[in-house]
Amino acid sequence: MEKYPQAFEDLISFFKSFPGIGKRTAERMAFEIMKWSPEKLSQAAKVISELKNNLSYCDNCGNLSETSKLCSICSDPHRDHSIICIVEDIPQIQSIEKAKAYKGLYHVLHGKIIPLDNREISTEVIDKIKHRIESGEIKEILIALSMDIEGQATAIYLSDILKVCNIKISRIARGIPAGSDISYADPATISAAISGRTQIQS
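Above: the chain's sequence. Below: its structure in token form.
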């Protein structure tokens, strides 16, 4: 089979490096970009090149932050600063926010335990959560991880580590089907899961 010109193959390879993007999808994305005007290409290149300068991670929770060391949620005085919702990654914050059933703070793990890949939660992330609890303001930790095997293993791991902190530890409950990723749950389902959260027994 004849290959595309090398520059086009490089573009396909670039898109294939994104999670969930296969060769056929990468090809379609590459062909779409070929239709763009030089002005649109320049604009896209500028947005990407300036990304690291304009965005960072919140020092407090790990969420995306734009203009300061704290994200818009952590710096909002109207949020409930007595509860932290632990999520796997940043997109889950957006899913929960759309449900409008939670008004507390967050903490992003940036991953979950995957034994087969030898992936664990970093000690730095755990230490940050403990540090926030030690401030004395936190009364509850809500673990809102996906209901797949890795998410459940991570939730158990976190609850075992954090139970020594002597605060309420709960998990999202009904509404999220077993094995599913909460990033794709609809707002009503997430709202039901948060409202029906259950305390984890120590």
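Helices lie at 6-16, 23-34, 38-49, 51-54, 90-99, 123-134, 149-162, 187-195.
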